[in-house]
Amino acid sequence: MRQSKLFYKTQKTVSEKIEVTSHRLLTKGGFIDQLASGIYSLLPLGFLVHKKIENIIREEMLRIGAQEVFLPALQPKHIWEETGRWKNIGQILFKLKDRHGKEFTLGPTHEEVITQIVQKHVHSWRDLPVHLFQIQTKFRNELRFFGGLLRAREFVMKDLYSFHPDEKDFENYYKKVINAYLRIFKRCNLKVRVVEASAAGFTKGVSHEFQVLTPAGEDTIFYCSKCDFAQNKEIAKVKPGQNCPRCKKGRIIKEKGIEVGNIFPLGTKYSEAFDAYYIDKKGIKKPIIMGCYGIGLGRLMATIVEVNHDEAGIIWPKEVAPYQIHLIPVEMQDKHVLTTAEKIYQNLQKGSLEVLYDDRDKVSIGEKFVESDLLGIPLRMIVSKKTLSKNQVEIKERNKKTIRLIRIKDVIQFLKEKHYV
Hints:
alpha+beta; Rossmann fold; 2 domains
C-alpha cells in the first residue's frame, strides 16, 4: 500500500477525556473514529488489524471442529420471553418495534437464536455433539462506556455454542476450547490467566475468564504467585498476602485485569426453555447440555495495544499488524534512492509481504519516523544514499532498539529467518 493513498490521518494530540492508553493510541494513529459514546468506526488501518484477529480466531475454532454460522442481529421478543430474559436483562437490550408494532431487540448475545435452531435439527444421540460459532455484531445498552473499544455499545464478538449428550462430553470439549483460547491469545502476544468466575446459577460449577493483567482493567483478580490458581473477586474467598489455598506455597496477589474471553457452562437452561431434547441410546428423552464461549474482537484489539506499546506508540505483534513492513526512503529527491525503493516495494509485494510504502514527498523524515513509531508496524526498512552506497538497507524492528544493515540481495532471506515470509 502506498502511504500517499492510504485513508488515514494521525493526530498529534487527542482529547484529555481519553485516559486509557489503547483508546488514545488507536485514536492518534487513525485506527478508529468515534461516532457517539460507545460507538466506533474501524478505519482502514484498524479494520486490517481487526480482520487479522478475526482470522486467527476462525482458524482456531475450525481446528477444534466448530462450524461457522451467521445469525440474525434482529431478534423477535418472543424468543427472549421463552427464557425470561426479555424482563430479566431488559435494561441491556436495545428494544424496537417494526411498522406492524411487533417488538424486537438488537442481539446482545445469541443463546436463544442458536438453541431454537438446534432444537429443529437434533433429535437423537446420533445428532450430537454439535459445535457452532459465529463472528457477529452485538449491541448492548451499557450503563457505562469505558476505554474506547474496551467497552462499547456496538462491537463484534465471536460466540461459540456447543451442544452435548452428557456432562463428560461437554467437559472434554470445554477443555479443548480452553486450549484453543490459549493459542489465540498467544498468537496475539498476550499473556493470560485462566480465572475462575461465577456460573451465574446455570450449573453447580464455575465459569472461566481469560484475564490479561493490566492497570487498565475493570476486573479485580486474585491469583497465586506460584501456581495457576486465580479467581475473580466476585467468587474469591482469599485476600492479598494469604497462602494459596491450592499449592500452599505461593502468596495471593491482587491485580486489575481485562477479560478478553470467557467460557461458560450453560447446563440445560436454554435447552429446556426451547424443548431441545434428544433420545439417548436407551430410548430416554433428555435435555441437551450446552456451553457458550465468547471473545470480543474490539476488546481484544484494544488489549493488545494496552500491553504492546511504548511512549512513541503501538508495537503490533506480527500476526495482527496492519502491515508487516514499513518501507521508508529517506531522500525522496534522489533518483537512485527512489528507484531502488520502488523496486524493493515491488519485490516484497511479489513475495506476498504486506508493505506500507511511505512514498510521500512533502513530509519530513522526522515526521515519517514519528508516525512510523505511532503506527507500530513490526519492521521498518530504510532506503537512503548512505545505505545504498553499500547496497544495503537499514532495518529496525519496532520492539527493539538495535538497527541492522542488510544487503539488498539478502533481504528476503532475512525476512524468512524472522518468519515474515
